[in-house]
Amino acid sequence: MRKIKTVAITGGTHGNELTGVYLIKKFFKNPDLVKRSNFETLFMHTNLGAMKQCTRYVDKDLNRTFVTQDLADPSRCTYEDILAKNLNEKLGPKGSKNPHVDFIVDLHSTTSDMGLSIIIDNDSPLVWKLAAYLSVHEPKLHIFRWKGDTAEVSFVNSIAPNGFAIEVGPIPQGVLRADLFFETETLVQKILDFFEKYNNNTLETLPKEIEIYNHIKLVDFPRDKKGEIKAAVHPNLQDHGYIKVQKGDPLFIDLEGRVIYYEEEADVYALFINEAAYYEKGFAMCFAEKKTIKVS
């Protein structure tokens, strides 16, 4: 078993998601909170420019900027491209056999009612072992396996060989919400406890199976011939997350009050419903299947 040497906790990847911004500030003031006996914990803000403006980003979404080819492309020089290259040098480099950090936990919030969630896009055994541990120690946690909206995983946490994002919500953009702030902090502490036990070989017996939500597809809003949104998320789905959707259930309602229904045969679960930041990306929600997977 290879021991963990360094864990990075990153926040402010989106400058208007204040849970991560302020949790990292708290760690700067109280670094002992994230110290453990047998590995180093790094913590940092990743997008100071966006934080200063309290915007998602300055030029482009930093959390979609870690494509390997782009990191090596000197012609890419937006604010976030430069940040990505610097972060890759500091925490990676991506794909390296000897990266500077072993695991990245990137802190996010969402306007959707996602509760306390981890977003996994990495199939390393260590990631899933941690997910199994958290499923026991944080019963409120949702585990979502994301297949992404880019061909290559291009999140901040993809720099390291292991990692995931934490998503909490609902929280409006640019707002600090106390209850979810402290829930996120508690989850981070449990993650660090896991690594300490892992290195000491004192982990308790973990579940061999866990329940997850597995990404199926991203769903766009209904649009007119000009590409304009012509219907809103139906009130039955609004302010919900991980909600079961069956054939005949309402998905959208147009501006004249006509309902658009889910017409597929397979039951799905809807999440990231009406996330404000995803309007520009062209989707209204994500569909997932609930399944039980084996964890080695």
Q: Give the helix/strand class.
A: alpha/beta
Oligomer: single chain
CATH class of the largest domain: Alpha Beta
List unreliable stretches of 5+ residues.
none
pLDDT average, as an integer? 96
User: Looking at the structure, what is the overall shape?
Assistant: globular
Helical run tally: 6
Strand fraction band? 25-35%
Q: Please outline the major beta sheet.
A: 10 strands, mixed
CATH 4th-level superfamily of the largest domain: Zn peptidases
The CATH topology assignment of the largest domain is: Aminopeptidase
Radius of gyration: 19 Å
Helix content: 10-25%
* SSE pattern: EHEHHHEEHEEHEEEEEEE
- What is the number of domains? 2
Give a count of the beta strands, DSSP E runs of length 2 or more. 13
In order across it, which strands form the biggest sheet? 2-1-3-6-4-5-7-13-12-9
Just name the CATH architecture of the largest domain: 3-Layer(aba) Sandwich
Q: Distance between the terminal alpha carbons, to the nearest Å?
A: 13 Å
